[in-house]
Amino acid sequence: MPRGRYSLHDLHDHTLLGEEHFQCAPGPSGWRYVSQTIAPSGDHLGSVDLTLDELGRPIRLELHAASWQVRGAALEGVTWVRTDPTGTHATEGNVRAHAFTGTSPAFLVATSRLLRLTPDSPATRVRLVAFTDPVLAPRTVDQSWALVNSEAHATDNGPLTVDEYQVSALDTGEQHTIHIAGDVVLSAPGIELEALESPPSPR
Fold first, then answer.
1. Phi, psi for residue 111 in degrees, rounded to 5
2. How far is C-alpha 60 from the geometric centre of its chain's CA atoms?
3. Which residues contact residue 170 at a Cβ distance below 8 angstroms, ignoring those fewer than 6 apart?
4. Model confidence pLDDT, tens digit, residues 22-51
5. What's phi and psi for 164, nearest 5 deg?
6. Domain boundary assignment for the chain
7. How many helical (H) and strand (E) elements, i.e. helices and strands, does the chain have?
8. For position 123, what pLDDT does the model report?
9. How far, in Å, CA of 200 to CA of 154, rounded?
10. Please, are residues 28 and 51 in contact by the beta-carbon 8 Å criterion?
11. Following DSSP, what letter does each residue of 108-127 receive, concatenated?
12. Which of 20, 107, 111, 161 could bond to 6 as cystine, CB 3.0-4.6 Å?
């Protein structure tokens, strides 16, 4: 069960936004990731609880940030309920999309598990509902994912395969690279793996 800590940075000026303390593991349904995000001041910023089925589809998502809450799942596309900090207003949404995304590294792992790309796969288009901080506002985004390299590295625990993905935002054309080993993000824009207590689980 990988357990560790990511640092999260502003994409533009690289300011430290916080740290995400996480643990994740394969389970009877597929894969689960839970985390708590802490501000540089030590204040609690939010949490993520994401469960995927064996095909990589989100069967349960619960997000908390700034007293806002989102609960969602793959249902006729993806469906979610977003509740305001007072708890008096809840709005439901549904989009013909494949999965969810957001600032947590969990969503990068989840999308890679959903797409199951190989180096021979063509670039694959995916539609995601992104929940943006700090109020978890939903926004539909279209991305293109390609697995450009998959390389095994020798470690004390045996070979570790690192996958390099090129991800393109289809609305702006912006491209970036992410590196994933099993169910742990090694590097991505705004994300750095700072500590890892046990090896990643195989993909």
1. -65, -40
2. 13
3. 125, 142, 143, 144
4. 999 998 789 999 999 999 999 999 999 999
5. -110, 120
6. 3-198
7. 1, 15
8. 95
9. 14
10. no
11. HHHHHHHH---TTSPPEEEE
12. 20
